[in-house]
Amino acid sequence: MQWKPLRPGFGLAGRIDRTLVDRVGVNGVESLFRAGTDDYWMEQALIESMNSVGISAPNPGVGCVIVKNGRELARGHTQAWKQAHAERMAFHALPQDADLEGAEVFVTLEPCSHTGFQPPCSDLFPGRGIARIVVATVDPDPRVSGEGLRRLATSGVRVETGVLEPEVRASLFPFTKTRGPKKTVWVAKWARMPSGHLADVDGNSKWITNAKSRAYTHWLRQKYDAVVVGARTFLVDRPALTVRDCALPRQRQPERVVFDPRGELLSLPESELECFRVLVCNDLLPEPRRDGTVFVGMDATPESPDLGLVFKSTLESMNFEKPLQSVMVEGGARLLRTLFESGVFDAAHTFTGAQKFDRLSAREWLESGPGAGFSPCTHHVFDEDVLQEWVKED
After folding, report:
1. Nearby residues of 274 by Cβ (< 8 Å), 6 or more positions away
2. How far apart are CA 199 and CA 207, in angstroms?
3. What is the Cα–Cα distance from 377 to 364, expressed in whole angstroms?
4. Is 87 a catalytic residue?
5. CA–CA separation, 105 and 206 (whole Å)
6. Does residue 76 sit in helix, strand or coil?
7. Which residue would you say has higher pLDDT here, 360 or 110?
8. What pTM, to 2 d.p., does this model score?
9. What would the DSSP string read from start to end of 9-58?
10. Which domains does the chain have, with CATH numbers?
11. pLDDT tier at 270 (50, 70, 90 boundaries)?
């Protein structure tokens, strides 16, 4: 499936400006649509869904808005994994005397029709007098996949789909990518100068992009389960890889990982690495093997032709608090090239900044996009910086 270009203002993180500005009251960012239209209310549901970032995965972050006579009655978003879904939260938020006769419900993803950690959301609507349910996109989970819509339709509720579908489908990434077969989604992210260079001759890459671009990146860090950099990038830039400069909510820090096949970080005090997992080729690990706390062994050598795939499988097999649904790789260029050559990536966030360094590194250079097989979906300008987002075609 080819991913369609999104309307201006939307990206894989949802409403782009919502990642930079906190939502205040109901409408924290100006709507891109005429008030009262289906697009407007679905946009509100999408914005509400962004409150699930960092907590709902591996469940999708869904938003739901209940409307009657052009006035919002309630809204809700998916809670932490295994907890209440968006539709149930919206119903909980209704005033006690709410009359739903003739009401409309806007929800970003098809209401579920199966019992998991929560009962089926599609059972919430029949018998309440709701006139219409508007769903942006069908749930790709094979346990649902249209069954929720069929249940609603047979109960007499009018169901419509497809409103703001490309934008909502993108905001649900990586969930929309994992379900088809279910897998860990890998995403590349890099920032380059107009010349294509990612760093100066000494490897320094701070700061190519401006504060808005960095805030968007920080929002993405809590959207994805793990963030990865290469050893050289870590040694030169000492990145924190934390969520700190984006809009609220800031609900989690990602798992932080360093790809270090040559063991360049083995001489560092572990106190400097206490928040990181460092993946090193097994033969370089000292005895006794330090495995799973800071340093984790990979069954490969630094020269292995399949090093990228070994790294991928090693990381995906590690034990984390929740299932590892998504990984974002932030650089450097050598690591990104290794993983691209292994066919690992499913999407890419690329920034072209206005910053220029005097002495450029010939090795730290990348094109503006990931190349063939990826569909461009986002083009957004942060002052002088340009964000482009790409998704691998199914």
Report:
1. 294
2. 9
3. 25
4. yes
5. 46
6. strand
7. 110
8. 0.92
9. TEETTEEGGGGTS---SS-SS--SS-TTSHHHHHHHHHHHHGGGTTTSTT
10. 31-174 (3.40.140.10), 183-392 (3.40.430.10)
11. confident
| Spatial contact of 364 and 335, defined as CB atoms under 8 Å apart | no
pLDDT, position 24: 44
Residue 150's Cβ-side half-sphere holds a number of Cα atoms within 13 Å equal to: 7
Residue 280 CA to chain centroid, in angstroms? 27
Strand partners, 256: 227, 276
Given a contact cutoff of 8 angstroms between Cβ atoms, the answer to whether 263 and 234 are in contact is no
Copy the structure tokens of residue 362.
């010939």
Cross-strand pairs, 190: 350
Token pair 């960095």 in the structure block, residue? 214
pLDDT in tens, 275-324: 999 999 999 987 655 556 789 999 999 999 999 999 999 999 998 888 89
Contact 246, 343 (CB under 8 A): no
What is the residue whose two structure tokens read 């499936």? 1
In which element (H, E) is residue 105 found? Answer: strand 104-109
C-alpha dihedral (122, 127, 133, 139), degrees to nearest 10: 10
> Does 255 score more than 80 pLDDT?
yes
Identity of residue 29: V
The distance in angstroms from the start CA to the end CA of the chain is 5
pLDDT at 200: 65
Among residues 87, 167, 364, 389, which one is catalytic? 87
Q: Tokens 């749930």 belong to which residue?
A: 139
Q: Encoding tokens for residue 346?
A: 């499913």
Q: Among 123-132, 139-148, 370-379, 380-389, whose mean pLDDT is lowest? A: 139-148
Sign of the C-alpha dihedral computed for residues 366, 372, 376 and 379 taken in this order? positive
The span from the CA of 63 to the CA of 56, in Å, is 12
Calpha distance 129→122 (Å, rounded): 14
List the structure tokens of 70: 């052009």
β 385-392/132-137 pair status: unpaired
